[in-house]
Write a structure and sequence with these properties.
two-stranded antiparallel sheet; 86 residues; 3 helices; 2 strands; mainly alpha
Length: 86
Amino acid sequence: MPGQHNLNLAFWRDTRNRVRMDREHEAKLTAWIERHAALSVMQHDNSWSLEEKLIKRGPPLPLNLSMSGHPFKTTLSDLRRALGRN
Protein backbone atom coordinates (compact mmCIF):
# COMPACT_ATOMS: atom_id res chain seq x y z
CA MET A 1 0.00 0.00 0.00
CA PRO A 2 1.49 3.39 -0.97
CA GLY A 3 2.53 5.48 1.99
CA GLN A 4 2.36 2.55 4.40
CA HIS A 5 5.52 1.94 6.39
CA ASN A 6 6.40 -1.35 8.02
CA LEU A 7 9.11 -0.70 10.58
CA ASN A 8 9.25 -4.32 11.80
CA LEU A 9 9.46 -3.25 15.43
CA ALA A 10 9.63 -5.91 18.14
CA PHE A 11 8.11 -5.38 21.56
CA TRP A 12 8.33 -7.31 24.81
CA ARG A 13 7.00 -6.94 28.34
CA ASP A 14 9.25 -6.48 31.33
CA THR A 15 8.77 -8.04 34.77
CA ARG A 16 6.36 -5.20 35.67
CA ASN A 17 4.28 -5.93 32.52
CA ARG A 18 5.31 -2.67 30.81
CA VAL A 19 5.76 -2.72 27.05
CA ARG A 20 9.39 -2.28 25.97
CA MET A 21 11.45 -2.35 22.79
CA ASP A 22 15.17 -2.68 22.16
CA ARG A 23 17.26 0.49 21.65
CA GLU A 24 17.69 -0.31 17.93
CA HIS A 25 13.93 -0.41 17.44
CA GLU A 26 13.44 2.69 19.60
CA ALA A 27 15.92 4.56 17.36
CA LYS A 28 14.13 3.34 14.22
CA LEU A 29 10.77 4.54 15.58
CA THR A 30 12.25 7.89 16.65
CA ALA A 31 13.69 8.44 13.16
CA TRP A 32 10.31 7.61 11.58
CA ILE A 33 8.51 10.04 13.92
CA GLU A 34 11.02 12.80 13.12
CA ARG A 35 10.34 12.34 9.38
CA HIS A 36 6.56 11.85 9.47
CA ALA A 37 5.02 13.45 12.56
CA ALA A 38 4.23 17.03 13.45
CA LEU A 39 3.37 18.75 16.69
CA SER A 40 1.54 21.97 17.39
CA VAL A 41 1.74 23.77 20.71
CA MET A 42 -0.31 26.57 22.17
CA GLN A 43 -0.56 28.07 25.62
CA HIS A 44 -3.88 27.97 27.47
CA ASP A 45 -4.49 28.81 31.13
CA ASN A 46 -6.85 25.84 31.59
CA SER A 47 -5.48 23.37 29.04
CA TRP A 48 -7.00 20.39 30.87
CA SER A 49 -10.46 21.86 30.24
CA LEU A 50 -9.89 21.56 26.49
CA GLU A 51 -8.71 17.95 26.45
CA GLU A 52 -12.08 16.26 26.10
CA LYS A 53 -13.26 18.70 23.41
CA LEU A 54 -10.06 18.23 21.43
CA ILE A 55 -10.28 14.44 21.66
CA LYS A 56 -13.94 14.34 20.63
CA ARG A 57 -13.71 17.01 17.91
CA GLY A 58 -10.04 16.83 16.99
CA PRO A 59 -8.15 14.26 14.92
CA PRO A 60 -10.24 11.37 13.58
CA LEU A 61 -8.39 8.80 15.71
CA PRO A 62 -7.11 10.23 18.99
CA LEU A 63 -4.75 7.87 20.77
CA ASN A 64 -6.12 8.87 24.18
CA LEU A 65 -8.64 6.04 24.34
CA SER A 66 -10.20 7.03 27.65
CA MET A 67 -12.37 9.68 25.96
CA SER A 68 -12.36 8.46 22.36
CA GLY A 69 -15.65 7.62 20.68
CA HIS A 70 -13.99 6.53 17.43
CA PRO A 71 -15.20 3.17 16.01
CA PHE A 72 -11.58 1.93 15.90
CA LYS A 73 -11.21 2.43 19.67
CA THR A 74 -11.94 -1.22 20.55
CA THR A 75 -9.57 -2.56 17.92
CA LEU A 76 -6.78 -0.22 19.00
CA SER A 77 -7.37 -1.09 22.64
CA ASP A 78 -7.14 -4.82 21.83
CA LEU A 79 -3.94 -4.27 19.83
CA ARG A 80 -2.38 -2.35 22.73
CA ARG A 81 -3.37 -5.07 25.20
CA ALA A 82 -1.75 -7.74 22.98
CA LEU A 83 1.41 -5.72 22.34
CA GLY A 84 4.53 -7.54 23.46
CA ARG A 85 2.73 -10.78 24.26
CA ASN A 86 3.59 -14.06 22.52
